[in-house]
């Protein structure tokens, strides 16, 4: 046929086809990678299995025509037929009579009235889950995926066959469930195996044994129902329908084998997808505070304090929209199969589909189609899924949302699953507040036949006024708010064995909350809590999100938080959203203090969140203990400022107002709050938030003759870790070995020395285990952090003579800025400079902040190799400001020490503020600006564009302005960019500060932008997005020149230039929409 084109595909390997393109542990990631590379359609040959992937709504909708195409049962579905034969999910359709009989019998069994009658057993199981979480308490991490799986499995079993697995009342997993998961995994594995099945006899034997267990269990349920005098007629459930209903077409009932097939099918298909959707919903709610709040408000307004009833389900419109949006973004079954009904078909007017081709309608991409959902298709916006707009979308774009399949083979249990999900989420949100156990959790996927979040842990905190007993009464319909409710034990309660009854005065209680991404505010909170005992207080520490709806009124509250481009930290977003949406004087009894951390270079958003929290609590009736205070990382020592505020302002006020115990005036050596003992056994410790990656390459890019050495690092990411261009790699470094050796020498420790740490209060150090001292010093603490005033004051108490004591006290006060801060002297530097100081090792450790991760922009595209990422960095190695030795960057020196084959601990952090490639790469031009290693994210962008071009994709123009020192010194990745420019992926404009005559006389990138400004005007009118990466100085310079250009363009377009106020308003309007920055210093 004229106009036909070949369906694109990756390079083949003889016999194997495209098997090597697929990650068998996470095939979804491979399929997304290929879709991003090839666009609307591509094909794969997996050991003779012909797959055609459709990635747009237009193509998928065409293949949903039941007159031309039908459901395909291949791959893992075909393997499952060994267990469930021609059950509803795995049947080939009308050609198998059992499917027709079962389909017609079960349509009524899953009808509206039947589903409504299942509300009570659904509520029964959901109530068991709620009671389990209530009794666990607010501090217990909950593996949300595991508990949602128990919920869904128990619900399906109870509602369809009257069988109780009682998953919440047993330590182990029911054998049926274990066998079921084994069968599902084996079915998926078999579809990707390279060798003939004869090589997998052990797996085959295990598969058959598991299938036998599944079928025998289902048969026992069936036989038990028949033997029950009231079973076959007295119960109105799905099993009764299968036993008694006569098919109106054939006049026969379902056979026992068909009943067993479908009982197992219900349990497999009916629990896995529901559990995954509930887990994904919890993830999205916790990542979108404003959505969480709206859902919970709707539940509160609809259900109030009474029991959840069946009539409430239909009224929860926003919750319904949330689940729809979750299924759009994260459909557990991310593709459904189709095949031609007969002969060959041409789709899209140009792609030929042949018999034997399995069409995979790839929802993971089509559900994000911008032609259906707009330019914000990748954003999570439940409002687009509210009834009116959802109905419009489904009418205007049929099959644009298909998580339940399509046509006559669509999921028969859709209404069942929907009621179960709405019921469970409403019940849980009515009674609990949830927070991430790890606020920095980035979505990781666990994949079997379906996908779900991997290792997602949350904490469930009973909402105000509820106890486990009153929760149980509420669910039973006998609870009345204010009657029988008791003050709840919150996540912030401190347990203290002392009491007035024992003749010992109980310590006053203090609640400390923090909002922190990098760890600075968390460390300050822990330091404050560890100091509490010496002032007569018993303190608890937790994230701000745990204080949502439960900011304590029975004890003073101290909040330490920061802002990130004007937004709350990850673990404070839920709290800030709740706080700013209060309307009355809900916090009238709260007594509080707020301390803010920030950087003054971010002028518009400096201290926005700390100030907002402080003002909002006061506006809602709270009472300040002390005035708002803050520190500025730009030109202040943050830890010294905090300690001064703590010692001079906060503690005196707390002691005075809340009956604490003032510190004595004794100048003797202070209590450390930390004890250590040494031993020799070896142990190992595990990290949180980061995983091991493998270094593949480490090489220099610039020699350092003109500025710092620039280097390139390439790593193989952990399995199942994915990223997109624009994301960051967070690295957990180790202190330089030379610095660790200095500490070991100073304290006369041998390299095989071990330490056991016991802490009296909160600490980030590993406790109660013997580990090497060198490991603690290398991995857990910041040895190079500038000493704070309090650090030096503490050191002065270990001085052997009065003269040294006076010197140190001077450095801790008037001489601090000149003598310590400006020279960046660490505690170790000072200890070495005054060798007569006999500071104990435990006091030394206590003064050091915890090791924190550092973020680097990823400089590669996952389209080149999805599991591999690179970073580009400068090595900090310069003369120390103290005049002695050198100042060595902790992370850059660590990274430069790595070689291929080394291990490194990393995680992926998602880009914020719109710093990612646009969805419509063919329509939206790019204007990119970088200086130095700020080129990193643009190497990723342009590498991705070059890959797309090489696979036949059309792209809008891209311009890159790059500033460096000299064309022969640090023109990074020059060969690569020349090749990409020749291919049409980018147009480069450079500025050389040390050789401007080689860059059209332009010294800096802003000079080059101004010179080329007329070329940019047309691109801006085409909808171009601007990206800037570099130091704050670069960002400000670029902003200034763009404002000048905008003023000039406005005069050209409108006949008069914009005013300063208009320019600022214009710039604020495009920020994070068409203007994105990635700024570092």
UniProtKB/TrEMBL annotation:
GO molecular function: aromatase activity; flavin adenine dinucleotide binding; FMN binding; heme binding; iron ion binding; NADPH-hemoprotein reductase activity
Keyword NADP: yes
SUPFAM superfamilies found in the cross-reference section: Cytochrome P450, Ferredoxin reductase-like, C-terminal NADP-linked domain, Flavoproteins, Riboflavin synthase domain-like
Residue ranges occupied by any Flavodoxin-like domain in the UniProt entry: 510-650
Catalytic activity as recorded in UniProt: an organic molecule + reduced [NADPH--hemoprotein reductase] + O2 = an alcohol + oxidized [NADPH--hemoprotein reductase] + H2O + H(+); 2 oxidized [cytochrome P450] + NADPH = 2 reduced [cytochrome P450] + NADP(+) + H(+)
Positions of region (Disordered): 479-500
Pfam family, any one: Flavodoxin_1
CDD domains: bifunctional_CYPOR, CYP120A1
EC nos: 1.14.14.1, 1.6.2.4
Annotated ranges, domain FAD-binding FR-type: 688-918
Binding site for heme: 411
Cofactor(s) needed: heme; FAD; FMN
Signal sequence coordinates: none
UniProt keywords, alphabetically: Electron transport, FAD, Flavoprotein, FMN, Heme, Iron, Metal-binding, Monooxygenase, NADP, Oxidoreductase, Transport
GO CC term, one of those recorded: cytosol
Family that this chain belongs to: In the N-terminal section; belongs to the cytochrome P450 family.
Name recorded for this polypeptide: Bifunctional cytochrome P450/NADPH--P450 reductase
Organism: Colletotrichum graminicola (strain M1.001 / M2 / FGSC 10212) (Maize anthracnose fungus)
């Amino acid at each position: 046929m004229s106009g036909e084109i070949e369906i694109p595909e990756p390079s083949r390997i003889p016999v194997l086809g495209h098997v090597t393109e697929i990650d068998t542990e996470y095939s979804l990631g491979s399929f997304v990678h290929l879709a991003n590379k090839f666009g609307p359609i591509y094909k794969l040959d997996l050991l003779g299995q012909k797959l055609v992937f459709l990635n747009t709504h237009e193509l998928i909708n065409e293949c949903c025509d039941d007159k031309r195409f039908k459901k395909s049962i291949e791959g893992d579905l075909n393997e499952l037929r060994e267990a469930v034969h021609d059950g509803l999910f795995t049947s080939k359709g009308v050609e198998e009579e059992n499917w027709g009989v079962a389909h017609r019998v079960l349509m009524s069994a899953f009808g509206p009235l039947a589903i409504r009658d299942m509300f009570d057993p659904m509520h029964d199981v959901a109530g068991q889950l709620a009671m389990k979480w209530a009794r666990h308490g607010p501090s217990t991490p909950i593996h949300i995926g595991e508990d949602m799986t128990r919920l869904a499995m128990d619900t399906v079993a109870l509602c369809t066959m009257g069988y109780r697995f009682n998953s919440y009342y047993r330590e182990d997993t029911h054998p049926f469930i274990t066998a079921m998961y084994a069968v599902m995994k084996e079915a998926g594995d078999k579809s990707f195996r390279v060798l003939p099945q004869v090589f997998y006899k052990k797996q085959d034997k295990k598969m058959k044994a598991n299938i036998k267990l599944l079928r025998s269990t289902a048969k026992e349920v069936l036989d038990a129902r028949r033997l029950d005098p009231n079973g076959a007629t007295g119960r109105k459930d799905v099993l009764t329908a299968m036993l008694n209903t006569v098919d109106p077409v054939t006049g026969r009932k379902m056979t026992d084998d068909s009943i067993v097939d479908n009982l197992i099918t219900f349990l497999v298909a009916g629990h896995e997808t529901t559990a995954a959707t509930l887990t994904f919903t919890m993830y999205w709610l916790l990542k979108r505070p404003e959505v969480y709040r709206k859902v919970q408000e709707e539940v509160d307004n609809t259900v109030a304090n009474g029991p959840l009833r069946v009539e409430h389900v239909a009224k929860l419109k926003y919750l319904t929209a949330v689940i729809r949006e979750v299924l759009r973004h994260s459909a557990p079954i991310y593709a459904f199969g189709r095949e031609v009904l007969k002969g060959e078909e041409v789709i899209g007017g140009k792609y030929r589909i042949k018999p034997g081709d399995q069409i995979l309608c790839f929802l993971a991409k089509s559900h994000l189609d911008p032609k259906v959902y707009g330019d914000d298709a990748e954003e999570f916006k439940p409002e687009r899924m509210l009834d009116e707009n959802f109905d419009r979308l489904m009418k205007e774009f049929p099959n644009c949302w298909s998580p339940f399949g399509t046509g006559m083979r669509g999921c028969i249990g859709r209404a069942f699953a929907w009621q179960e999900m709405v019921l469970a989420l409403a019940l849980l949100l009515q009674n609990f507040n949830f927070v991430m156990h790890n606020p920095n959790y980035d979505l990781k996927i666990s994949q079997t036949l379906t996908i779900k979040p991997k290792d997602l842990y949350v904490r469930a905190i009973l909402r105000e006024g509820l106890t486990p007993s009153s929760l149980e009464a509420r669910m039973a319909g006998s609870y009345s708010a204010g009657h029988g409710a008791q003050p709840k034990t919150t996540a912030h309660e401190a347990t203290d064995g002392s009491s007035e009854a024992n003749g010992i005065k109980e310590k006053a209680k203090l609640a400390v909350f923090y909002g922190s991404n990098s760890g600075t505010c968390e460390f300050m909170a822990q330091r404050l809590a560890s100091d509490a005992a010496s002032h007569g207080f018993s303190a608890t520490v937790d994230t701000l999100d745990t204080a949502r709806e439960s900011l304590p009124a029975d004890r003073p509250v101290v909040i330490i938080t920061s802002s990130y481009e004007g937004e709350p930290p990850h673990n404070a977003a839920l709290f800030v959203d709740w706080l700013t949406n209060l309307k009355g004087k809900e916090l009238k009894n709260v007594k509080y203090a707020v301390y803010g951390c920030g950087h003054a270079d971010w002028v518009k958003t400096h201290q926005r969140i700390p100030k907002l929290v402080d003002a909002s609590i006061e506006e809602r009736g709270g009472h300040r203990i002390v005035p708002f205070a803050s520190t500025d990382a730009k030109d202040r020592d943050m830890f010294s400022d905090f300690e001064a505020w703590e010692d001079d302002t906060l503690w005196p006020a707390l002691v005075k107002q809340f009956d604490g115990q003032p510190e004595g005036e004794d100048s003797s050596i202070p209590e450390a709050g930390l004890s250590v003992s040494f031993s020799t056994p070896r142990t190992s410790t595990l990290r949180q938030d980061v995983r091991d990656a493998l270094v593949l390459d480490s090489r220099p890019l610039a020699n350092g003759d003109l500025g710092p050495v620039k280097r390139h690092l390439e790593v193989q990411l952990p399995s199942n870790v994915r990223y997109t261009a624009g994301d960051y790699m967070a690295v957990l470094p180790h202190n330089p070995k030379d610095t660790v050796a200095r500490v070991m020498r100073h304290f006369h420790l041998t390299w095989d020395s071990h330490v056991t740490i016991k802490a009296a209060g909160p600490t980030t150090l590993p406790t109660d285990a013997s580990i090497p001292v060198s490991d603690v010093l290398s991995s857990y603490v910041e040895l190079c952090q500038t000493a704070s005033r309090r650090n030096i004051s503490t050191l002065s108490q270990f001085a052997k003579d009065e003269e040294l004591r006076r010197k140190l006290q001077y450095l801790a006060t008037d001489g601090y800025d000149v003598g310590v801060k400006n020279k960046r002297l660490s505690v170790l530097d000072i200890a070495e400079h005054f060798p007569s100081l006999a500071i104990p090792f435990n006091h030394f450790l206590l003064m050091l902040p915890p090791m924190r991760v550092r973020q680097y922009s990823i400089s590669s595209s996952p389209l080149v190799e999805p599991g591999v990422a690179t970073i580009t960095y400068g090595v900090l190695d310069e003369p120390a400001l103290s005049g002695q030795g050198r100042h060595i960057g902790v992370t850059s020196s660590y990274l430069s020490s790595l070689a291929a084959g080394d291990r490194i601990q990393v995680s992926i952090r998602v880009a914020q503020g719109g710093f990612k490639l646009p969805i419509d790469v063919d329509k939206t031009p790019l204007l990119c600006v970088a200086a130095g290693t700020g080129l990193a994210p643009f190497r990723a962008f342009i590498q991705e564009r070059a890959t797309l071009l090489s696979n036949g994709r059309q792209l809008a123009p891209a311009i890159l302005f790059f500033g460096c020192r000299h064309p022969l010194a640090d023109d990074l990745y020059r060969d690569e960019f020349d090749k990409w420019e020749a291919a049409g992926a980018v147009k480069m404009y450079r500025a050389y500060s040390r050789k401007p005559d080689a860059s059209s006389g332009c010294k800096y990138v802003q000079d080059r932008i101004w010179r080329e400004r007329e070329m940019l005007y047309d691109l801006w009118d085409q909808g171009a997005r601007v990206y800037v990466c570099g130091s704050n100085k670069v960002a400000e310079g670029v902003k200034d020149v763009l404002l000048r250009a905008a003023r000039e363009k406005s005069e050209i377009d409108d006949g008069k230039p914009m005013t300063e106020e208009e320019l600022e308003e214009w710039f604020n309007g495009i920020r994070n929409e068409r203007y994105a920055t990635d700024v570092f210093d």
